[in-house]
């Protein structure tokens, strides 16, 4: 007892050293910053926060994997949804704790690993010194020059997620086309099998593709405020969906904006398109999801085939038709569809 009291009262320099270091470390590693400049890089343990504390950018490892990325998520909503990833095609190792995101000598935003090798960069031409990177309350991560002109925007490089005010579509003149591309898996942010976007053909529809070209699902045509083929689309919110089809400009863009409600649309690594929203900034609720059932899959029963999700098998041929290839059909590949029964009248 006496000994403990003595220790407590005695001057112990190690306590002050400890105190000093914990203050220093908390300032240095747990800090939230509001911009990245050449003199203020972002290190592991630090996050970049938007002015209204809506979005946050930092290092993360999805699903406790060996991959580490720099990404953006909503600051206060759980489960955390990563809405954009910088180095999705070039993951850092989870053991690399010395990586940093900085403004490099040519004014670009650059992610370097612990050995100072470049992992990812914005790679644009920056005409002046003093550029800085900021995260806006819309979730747009921007690089701006010394007078505040935006030089680069993450909204121009969508990943698997569309945020309100981002555009998904194409510009026929420039040839620029934006699609959302799914992750490879829950723990691998690189480009996976599925993508979603607008098809250029009339009528305007949204497609989910496999490998960028094989149709997997389609939304049905756009009708003023919604896509006709999405029955689950909640009418309460459909007014927030927008299709801007400018025939003269050759542009077509889909976007959504839910008034004062945080939301995102994503294509999951399993190929599911979801629109999620958070009314009070607490948790995520589902607005719509597609495909909803096996019959939603594009052309699953092929020409002259009929799909009924409640039956097994789900595909049947129209009356008077039979499977085009009985062998494929019985193996479960029914996309080849059906053909008319040949009724031989004369023999
Ligand atoms: C970056 O943040 C610092 C404070 O940490 C501030 O002094 C500076 O003006 C900011 N720069 C820009 C471009 O926002
Ligand atoms: C940077 O951009 C230049 C010109 O557009 C291109 O040639 C180069 O391959 C790019 N570098 C990287 C690392 O993406
Ligand atoms: C940027 O700064 C460097 C040295 O700090 C200077 O040599 C260079 O001319 C500057 N570039 C511009 C475009 O102002
Ligand atoms: C996520 O992590 C868990 C536990 O390590 C693992 O079992 C699961 O397969 C992972 N999921 C994916 C999709 O990678
Ligand atoms: C997609 O591409 C992969 C790899 O090239 C291939 O194995 C797979 O069969 C393709 N799937 C479709 C539906 O095209
Ligand atoms: C864009 O081009 C495609 C194919 O070249 C065409 O089918 C489509 O109608 C064009 N869309 C617009 C909006 O001009």
Point out poorly predicted stretches: 1-11, 15-19, 21-29
How many β-strand runs?
30
Overall 3D form = elongated
Task: Average the pLDDT over all residues and give the rounded result.
Answer: 86
Distance separating the two termini:
113 Å
CATH-scheme architecture of the largest domain: Orthogonal Prism
Tell me the number of helical segments per DSSP (H or I, 4 or more residues long): 3
Strand fraction:
35-45%
The biggest beta sheet reads:
6 strands, mixed
Query: What CATH first level of the largest domain would be assigned?
Result: Mainly Beta
**Approximate helicity band:** under 10%
- Using only CA atoms, what is the Rg? 26 Å
Q: Would you tell me which CATH topology of the largest domain applies?
A: Agglutinin, subunit A
Judged by helices, strands and strand pairing, the structural class is mainly beta
The kinds of small molecule bound in this structure are: 2-acetamido-2-deoxy-beta-D-glucopyranose
GO biological process, one term: recognition of pollen
InterPro entries: Bulb-type_lectin_dom (IPR001480), Bulb-type_lectin_dom_sf (IPR036426), S_locus_glycoprot_dom (IPR000858)
Signal peptide: 1-30
Keywords: Disulfide bond, Glycoprotein, Signal
Structure, explained:
- There is one protein chain.
- It is elongated and about 85 Å long.
- Helix content is 9%, strand content 37%.
- The longest helix has 17 residues, at 13-29.
- The model is unreliable at 1-11, 15-19 and 21-29 (pLDDT under 50).
- The chain has 3 helices and 30 strands.
- The chain has 3 domains: 29-156, Bulb-type lectin domain (Agglutinin, subunit A, Orthogonal Prism), CATH 2.90.10.10; 161-274, no CATH class; 305-340, no CATH class.
- Strands 1, 3, 4, 5, 6 and 7 form a 6-stranded mixed sheet that branches.
- It has 347 residues and is mainly beta.
- Bound molecules: 2-acetamido-2-deoxy-beta-D-glucopyranose (6 copies).
- One 2-acetamido-2-deoxy-beta-D-glucopyranose binds next to loops.
- Residues 33-156 form the Bulb-type lectin domain.
């Amino acid at each position: 007892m006496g000994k403990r009291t003595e220790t407590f009262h005695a001057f112990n320099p190690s306590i002050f050293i400890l105190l000093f270091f914990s203050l220093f470390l908390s300032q240095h590693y747990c800090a939230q910053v509001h911009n990245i400049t050449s003199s203020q890089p972002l290190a592991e343990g630090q996050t970049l926060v938007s002015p209204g504390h809506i979005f946050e950018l930092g290092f993360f490892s999805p699903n406790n994997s060996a991959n580490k990325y720099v990404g953006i998520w909503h600051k206060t909503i759980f489960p955390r949804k990563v809405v954009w990833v910088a180095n999705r095609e070039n993951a850092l190792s989870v053991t690399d704790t010395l990586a940093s995101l900085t403004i490099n000598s040519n004014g670009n935003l650059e992610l370097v690993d612990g050995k100072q090798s470049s992992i990812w960069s914005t790679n644009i031409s920056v005409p002046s010194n003093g550029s800085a990177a900021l995260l806006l309350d819309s979730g747009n991560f921007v690089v701006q020059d010394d007078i505040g002109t935006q030089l680069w925007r993450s909204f121009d490089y969508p990943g698997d997620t569309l945020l309100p005010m981002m555009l998904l579509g194409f510009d026929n003149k420039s040839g620029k086309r934006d699609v959302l591309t799914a992750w490879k898996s829950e723990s691998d942010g690189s480009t996976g099998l599925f993508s979603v976007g607008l098809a250029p053909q009339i009528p305007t529809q949204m497609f989910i593709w496999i490998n960028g070209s094989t149709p997997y699902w389609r939304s049905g045509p756009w009708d003023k405020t919604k896509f006709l083929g999405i029955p689950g689309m909640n009418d309460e919110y459909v007014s927030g969906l927008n299709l801007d089809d400018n025939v003269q400009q050759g542009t077509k863009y889909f976007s959504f904006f839910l008034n004062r409600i945080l939301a995102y649309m994503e294509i999951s690594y399993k190929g599911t398109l979801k629109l999620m929203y958070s009314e009070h900034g607490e948790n995520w609720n589902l607005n719509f999801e597609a495909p909803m059932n096996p019959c939603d899959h594009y052309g699953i029963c092929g020409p002259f085939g009929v799909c009924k999700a409640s039956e097994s098998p789900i595909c049947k041929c129209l009356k008077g038709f039979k499977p085009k290839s009985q062998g494929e059909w019985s193996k479960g590949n029914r996309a080849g569809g059906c053909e008319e029964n040949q009724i031989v009248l004369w023999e």
